[in-house]
Amino acid sequence: MEYDHEAQVLNFLSGLVLGAVIGAGVAMLTAPQSGRRTRRRIRKVAGDIRHTATDRWDDLADDVKVRVDDAIDGARKKFVS
Fold this sequence. Notes:
Largest sheet: none
Number of helices: 2
Number of strands: 0
Distance between the termini: 26 Å
Number of domains: 1
Mean pLDDT: 82
């Protein structure tokens, strides 16, 4: 039951982030600036998003690894006892 709740939260947050990224992209493309300036802003924001996404992905991978290790340790203790 806890897994279902965590999956729902993760799905919601993923959708929220995706919506924010798409909204920011549309806002930049429709902004009243020159093309060169807009492209520069898009490159900067895309780089920032990529850096943030990489950090969050690494954090998620570490969290999953810890949870898997904990599950394996718990299973071993149950089978050894």
